[in-house]
Structures are given as C-alpha cells and as structure tokens.
C-alpha cells in the first residue's frame, strides 16, 4: 500500500503526465514524434534496413526538433523502445506583448506570461499583426518542459 501511495505522489509532481513514454521503434510513424538525442522531434523520414544474414532490422530516423527546427538522425534496432515525447498544443488569446514576452489568456480565463515571441519571420509577423490592433490567437506547443509559439491566426469575430 505504501508503495502505491508513494508512486502516486511522485506522479503528481509531474502534473499528472510524464514527459515521454516508450514506444517500440517499429511502431513509430512518419510525422509522429520521437526523442532524438534528448530533444523532442517530429519524424520527417524513416527507413528500415536489414543488417545482414542474422542481424536485426535497424530503423533509420530523421527528426526535426519541434522547437529549434534542427535536424537530428538516429539509428535504432526495430525491436528497441524509443522515447516519444508528450506534445501538447493549446490556443491562447494574445493580450499583450512586452519585452519580447507574450501575455496570453486561455479559454478558462487564466493568464500565462512566460512564452517568448517567436524569433524570425513568425515573430515579426505576429508583432506586426498585433501592432495593427488585430485580435490574435496563438498556438503554443509544449513538450518536455519547453514551450514555443508555433503559429498564430486572427481571432474569429
């Protein structure tokens, strides 16, 4: 009994969900997610190769870091488990931009102020649209304790 309680307590520190879950390599799919070199990646390419007469099939994975866009590659036996990141997408209304941070509000009215305006073209477009006085809805992708704005759109009137 004490063990079960202890585990439950540990889970609650992780806000009810672990950062990753295991999946057999052969079950991964293109456009799915996988952790490569400790980074949450979207699988953009995968191929299986046989390694000889008695060898096991190996899976070659190519993934793009969902936050940085950096490309990672990995090779794993098809029977091995790989970590798959839990990825969450949420939409927020943009209330304000201050010092490169966005002030956001989600559907239940709670606010969030710890996400930076994205760098590069996306961020420039977002700031320009906001400066024009448009009501914007931003999509925040979160995974493995990181968050980023990946897209935005004008709020429906």
Automatic annotation (TrEMBL):
Keyword Aminoacyl-tRNA synthetase: no
InterPro entries reported for this sequence: IF5A-like, IF5A-like_N, IF5A_C, NA-bd_OB-fold, Rib_uL2_dom2, Trans_elong_IF5A_hypusine_site, Translation_prot_SH3-like_sf
Alphabetical keyword list: Cytoplasm, Elongation factor, Hypusine, Initiation factor, Protein biosynthesis, RNA-binding
Broad class of where this protein is predominantly found: cytoplasm
UniProt family annotation: Belongs to the eIF-5A family.
Function: Translation factor that promotes translation elongation and termination, particularly upon ribosome stalling at specific amino acid sequence contexts. Binds between the exit (E) and peptidyl (P) site of the ribosome and promotes rescue of stalled ribosome: specifically required for efficient translation of polyproline-containing peptides as well as other motifs that stall the ribosome. Acts as ribosome quality control (RQC) cofactor by joining the RQC complex to facilitate peptidyl transfer during CAT tailing step.
GO MF term set: ribosome binding; RNA binding; translation elongation factor activity; translation initiation factor activity
Start and end residues of each Translation initiation factor 5A C-terminal domain: 86-153
Domain of life: Eukaryota
UniProt organism field: Zancudomyces culisetae
One cellular-component annotation, GO: cytoplasm
Cellular compartment(s): Cytoplasm
Keyword Cytoplasm: yes
Protein name, as recorded: Eukaryotic translation initiation factor 5A
Gene Ontology biological-process entries: positive regulation of translational elongation; positive regulation of translational termination; translational frameshifting
Pfam families to which the protein is assigned, alphabetical: eIF-5a, IF5A-like_N
């Amino acid at each position: 009994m004490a063990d079960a309680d202890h585990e439950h307590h540990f889970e609650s520190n992780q806000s009810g969900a672990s950062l990753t879950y295991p999946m057999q390599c052969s079950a991964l799919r293109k456009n799915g997610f996988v952790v490569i070199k400790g980074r949450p990646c979207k699988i953009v390419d995968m191929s299986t190769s046989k390694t000889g007469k008695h060898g096991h099939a190996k899976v070659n994975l190519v993934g793009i870091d969902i936050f940085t866009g950096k490309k990672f590659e990995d090779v794993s036996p098809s029977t091995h488990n790989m970590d798959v990141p839990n990825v969450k997408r949420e939409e927020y209304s943009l209330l304000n931009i201050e010092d490169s941070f966005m002030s956001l509000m989600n559907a239940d009215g709670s606010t969030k102020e710890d996400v930076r305006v994205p760098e590069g073209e996306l961020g420039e477009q977002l700031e320009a649209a906001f400066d024009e006085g448009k009501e914007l809805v931003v999509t925040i992708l979160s995974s493995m304790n990181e968050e980023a704005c990946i897209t935005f759109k004008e709020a429906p009137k």
